[in-house]
């Protein structure tokens, strides 16, 4: 898969990079993931799944904010990835984003890694 950037020229609040690393699609959202920008992440996640990449690693290290809409995008991708025999791995979450996952209990349904390198090293997980 080519490395590409998907973004909204109007908001500029979220850019998403996608690349393939081994059997994983690495999706890196940068900025704010909320009601206004959720489709900018949803579309590349669904595109990866439609191309047969069911192991999605979301590098959250550049994600500055995530609200319930963003959380729902990730949960929806998780269900589709698991149905395809894969999963969604979250890596490098900033404390403010990790807190959203903790208080909603969503951290219990995702495989969470401290870093992108750790997520990529855990190919079996």
From TrEMBL:
Belongs to the anti-sigma-factor antagonist family. Gene3D superfamilies: STAS domain. Residues 14-123 form the STAS domain. One of its GO terms (molecular function) is anti-sigma factor antagonist activity. It comes from the Bacteria. InterPro entries: Anti-sigma_ant, STAS_dom, STAS_dom_sf. Pfam families: STAS. This is Anti-sigma factor antagonist. The lineage of its organism: Bacteria, Bacillati, Actinomycetota, Actinomycetes, Kitasatosporales.
